[in-house]
């Protein structure tokens, strides 16, 4: 009696191969989809983290700007007097096509905070967009940089101060704070919410046409609130198809209006409104006496 040997027919083998190939293709497609989704979410999370950390640092400097130590005038290393101090409370340079600090779209602002927490040393903190080097892979793009200098006009030896040195005085030398920044807007406002212009220490042609630094010195003590807009782009493409984008930050004509014709990058705008503690002092009326009373610094906390 012969034994029967059971096996697969050619048709069954071909069907099994096809089913296997379909399963592998489906698995690869699912992996590819989730991999791209993860990359997109990861880039968005990275953008959010760097932008929020930067805004927190900017807000801190805005709250401090305009503050001078009680003994600063008599002991500071720069030998500044009250007149010098009043000229350096806050500085905002608005975007101008002729301004190299205005970013890729020539509309971004830059700003300087000035304050002193000690009797001898004065801080100047600068935030502005800086272009990546031409030999880098990011040629043509800009990042937000932060620069911190102590006693930027030098030291006076008669005050017992050491010689000015880069290691001591350059606390942060144009460090990269946020990569791939599309727009950066700084909008100063008075107690009524009206935009104040100009408020510059490093004035562009735009500010000079409206009174420049002399007008700015009059306006600095009026700054009660500063609105900050920061628009950041993803490092890599995240969308399948091109998308047209319009970025509008701040009030016209002081803000930005940027149109990007179309690409696959994700962009997100972050915003913070900061009360300055040491510039415009709000005044309220006492209900009991009808007299005006000034608020303390806790008003802006």
Give the end-to-end Cα distance, rounded to a whole number of Å. Answer: 99 Å
DSSP, total strands: 12
Derived structural class: alpha+beta
**Largest sheet strand order:** 1-2-3-4-5
Number of helix segments? 6
**What is the helix content?**
25-40%
Number of domains: 1
Structure description:
With 301 residues, the chain is α+β, with helices and mostly antiparallel strands. The chain has one domain. It is 27% helix and 30% strand. It has six helices and twelve strands. It has a five-stranded antiparallel sheet. A three-stranded antiparallel sheet has the order 6-7-10, covered by helices on one side. β8 and β9 (256-263) form a beta hairpin. The longest helix has 55 residues, at 10-64. The termini are far apart. Mean pLDDT is 85; it is low at 282-301.
Which features characterize this protein?
single chain, 301 residues, alpha+beta, five-stranded antiparallel β-sheet, three-stranded antiparallel β-sheet, 12 strands, disordered C terminus
Put the structure in a nutshell:
The protein is α+β, with helices and mostly antiparallel strands and 301 residues long. The protein is 27% helix and 30% strand.
Task: Spell out the blueprint of helices and strands.
Elements: H1 10-64, H2 72-75, H3 82-87, E1 90-93, E2 110-115, E3 123-131, E4 142-150, H4 166-169, E5 170-178, E6 181-189, H5 205-208, H6 212-219, E7 225-237, E8 243-249, E9 256-263, E10 265-275, E11 283-285, E12 292-294
Antiparallel strand pairs: 1-2, 2-3, 3-4, 4-5, 6-7, 7-10, 8-9, 11-12
């Amino acid at each position: 009696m012969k034994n029967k040997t059971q096996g697969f027919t050619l048709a069954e083998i071909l069907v099994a191969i096809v089913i296997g190939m379909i399963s592998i293709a489906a698995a690869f497609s699912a992996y590819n989809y989730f991999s791209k989704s993860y990359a997109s979410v990861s880039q968005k999370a990275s953008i959010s983290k760097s932008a929020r950390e930067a805004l927190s640092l900017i807000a801190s400097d805005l709250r401090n700007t305009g503050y001078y130590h009680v003994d600063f005038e008599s002991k500071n290393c720069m030998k500044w007097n009250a007149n010098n101090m009043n000229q350096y409370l806050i500085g905002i340079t608005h975007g101008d096509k002729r301004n190299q600090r205005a970013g890729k779209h020539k509309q971004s602002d830059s700003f300087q905070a000035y304050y002193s927490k000690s009797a001898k040393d004065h801080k100047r903190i600068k935030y502005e967009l800086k272009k990546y080097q031409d030999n880098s892979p990011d040629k043509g793009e800009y990042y937000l940089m932060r620069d911190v200098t102590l006693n930027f006009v030098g030291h006076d030896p008669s005050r017992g101060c050491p010689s000015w040195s880069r290691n001591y005085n350059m606390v942060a030398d144009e460090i990269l704070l946020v990569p791939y920044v599309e727009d950066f807007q700084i909008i100063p406002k008075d107690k009524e919410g009206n935009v104040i212009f100009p408020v510059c220490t490093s004035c562009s042609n735009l500010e000079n046409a409206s009174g420049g630094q002399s007008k700015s010195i009059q306006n600095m003590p009026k700054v009660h609130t500063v609105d900050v807009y920061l628009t950041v782009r993803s490092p890599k493409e995240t969308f399948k198809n091109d998308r047209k984008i319009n970025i509008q930050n701040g009030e016209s004509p002081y803000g930005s209006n940027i149109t990007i014709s179309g690409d696959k990058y994700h962009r997100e705008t972050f915003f913070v409104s900061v009360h300055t503690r040491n510039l415009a002092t709000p005044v309220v009326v006492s209900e009991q006496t009808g007299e005006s009373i000034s608020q303390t610094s806790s008003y802006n906390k």
